[in-house]
Amino acid sequence: MVVNKSKSAFRTIAEVADDLGIATHVLRFWETKFPQIKPMKAAGGRRYYRPDDVEIVKLIKDFLYEKRYTIEGVQKLLKDKGVKAILGGEIQKDFFDMSAPVDEKPADPAIVEVLKLSENQRHLLESARAELEALTTELKQKR
Questions:
Q1: What are the average pLDDT values for consecutive 10-residue runs of the chain, which has 143 residues?
Q2: How many domains does the chain contain in total?
Q3: 29 in the Ramachandran plot: left (φ > 0), alpha (ψ -120 to 50) or beta?
């Protein structure tokens, strides 16, 4: 499957599986074994992998398939060192993470409205934000 998306675009499970050369059922299994893999799920259960999710999956695949770690070994490594330390970079914060604590009275009323969005609306906003960030980065590089 050839998809012409920016690096910051969300990917379906099929796109991620094709890109990495693994089966979709393997990705679903890894989601049960590695809590660090947290794709967004739209209504109906369709998975959308953020760029950070894809990087984590690549990391896990590398440790399992190339470096020959066991699942338990990779779990321990991720737990002990953390994903950020292993990837050597900043992991994006999930702006729409509903499990994150929210002040009772947010400073910005727009935040309250964001929290009331449906999963589909959140996905659309997250995708738009990611595309805008990619364009901003591209424009900065051309200067």
A1: 67 93 96 92 86 91 94 92 75 47 45 57 79 84 78
A2: 1
A3: alpha
